[in-house]
Amino acid sequence: ANRKFHPTDTVVDCGFGVKIGGGNFQVIAGPCSVEGENLIRIARRVKAAGATMLRGGAYKPRTSPYAYQGMGAEGLDLLCEARAELDMPIVTEIMDPRDVQLFLDKKIDVMQIGARNAQNFPLLKEVGKTQTPVLLKRGMSGTIDELLMAAEYIMSEGNDNVILCERGIRTFETRTRNTFDLNAVPVLHYLSHLPVVADPSHATGYTRYVEPMALAATAAGADGLEIEVHDDPSHAWSDGAQALTPDMFDDVMRRIQIIREAI
Ligand code: PEP
Ligand code: MN
């Protein structure tokens, strides 16, 4: 992952002609969880607004075992149906090394490793044995060096298609869900050749802060953003408090474009 050994930026090919890194900027958007048939409605809206990758969790790493755990394989199928209609790569979280074969069978375009699994070394090694792009999120108490070492776990098994993701870290601050470490964007670009994505949704935890932090991350040179969008946030099965509605997402995408043109 170290730029010393690889001075030029890595460009990760996510399929459907969507490349990220080295000047290629992409927005990943969709609901926190795949919940059912609203997925396709949300997917149509985020694509129309300019998102190039669709996200949605079918396996959810919830704090409580009694909270909604995700639709599992059925959720992957809904993502695959949306991909077939919209011709866009899908990004979804994998939590268990035993699911790698299933994700390969379904031809999941990008496997997300969530913050809670950022140092799940057996999982990192297992996705490292594939060639599927991996969106690797920073652990909530993980340092930048720990994130880079997690990337090494994947790459040392042979998979160089790693995209790093800053999603906020835990600090003493309680007004936001996490503290968005915007520093991580330029620091990761200095240290590593891998693409860097920012997730202002989990980094802030509140809808009202998502847009300003999305714009800030874009201005700071992020190679992409991951943003949660839901068509009925107050009834979302997870993370409704930080979801943008499709209309809000339209506005954010317009402003991201203005920042992209200005930098
Ligand atoms: C998510 O992307 O929905 C998610 C659970 O993110 P994180 O792992 O960053 O908390
Ligand atoms: Mn979420």
UniProtKB/TrEMBL annotation:
| Keywords for the protein's UniProt record, in alphabetical order | Transferase
Which residues does the UniProt record annotate as the domain DAHP synthetase I/KDSA?
Answer: 15-250
**Regions annotated as coiled coil:** none
Give a yes or no for keyword Transferase in this entry: yes
Q: Name one GO molecular function term.
A: transferase activity
Q: Which domain of life is it from?
A: Bacteria
| Biological processes per GO annotation | aromatic amino acid family biosynthetic process
Its protein name is 3-deoxy-7-phosphoheptulonate synthase
* Included range, full protein: 72 to 334 of 340
